[in-house]
Amino acid sequence: MEECQLPLIDLRGLGSRDERERAACAAAICRASSEWGFFQVVNHGINPGLVRKMRSEQSRLFRLPFDDKVSGGLLNNSYRWGTPTATCPKQLSWSEAFHVPLSKVSHKDCYGDNFTSLRCLLQSYREVMVEFAAAMAELAGTLAGVLVENLGHSRGDFEDICQESSCFLRLNRYPACPTSPEVFGLVPHTDSDFLTILSQDEVGGLQLMKDSRWVAVKPNQDALIVNIGDLFQAWSNDIYKSVEHKVMANAKMERYSIAYFLCPSYETSIGSCREPSKYRKFTFGEYRSQIQEQVKKYGYKIGLPSFRL
Q1: Which domain holds residue 286?
Q2: Could you tell me the pTM of the whole model?
Q3: What is the CATH number of the domain that holds 293?
């Protein structure tokens, strides 16, 4: 498969004293969001040491016994394995994950009934996770602010929509899968948030749809990957693109990644920032509920097309 290099954007430009450099950096972010729906960022302000520490603690967490992960109440009891709703192999995700609300990461009770027996591991992980989540939230706010201002709106208006407490971290592990090179680590999908920031290791596997064909994303450990979600596509009236993507399992190597999802509260109403709108208004809760029904009924998400006018 063709391997692509995503647009690479140096975020130092946003902090430049030169107005032209700031404008050029912001324009690059908006252009990539429209043309690709994906881009990479470097000099993003998140300490590389913190990223390495988060990956190390994540690896230790996934090495816990399966029973502890499933029934120990770890990370708000958010452990997931595979795809319980799958009815055929093409609906199966060969992966395990913790999908954690940011509102919970600083709470001791988020770390399970076995907190006493696993105190050293979980206390260390809690400290790192709180710091990492705060850094990702700040970066997400910066990037969303650029995208919002490009559409003629103020950052303040958008900050009222997306509170840190309504966002999520997803810790992913994709085990080696020697049975088939066609097994999905994560089935094809679009993200149901405003935007996603992804930190991944050196093992490839991420692919996205570009010009009606799948292309593989070349791993870059020094960069974070950013992609537009469904809500930003609807809010921008299709100016920004939420692009279908997937992860393919590796036959010999396991893969780790950490995703930050910028989400509103479930009660938040999503409407287009421009008229005439291409989508009817809906709440995030309504959107999530309809997606769950679609997956249950068809085995896959339909998403935004269901809300087009």
Answers
A1: 3-307
A2: 0.95
A3: 2.60.120.330
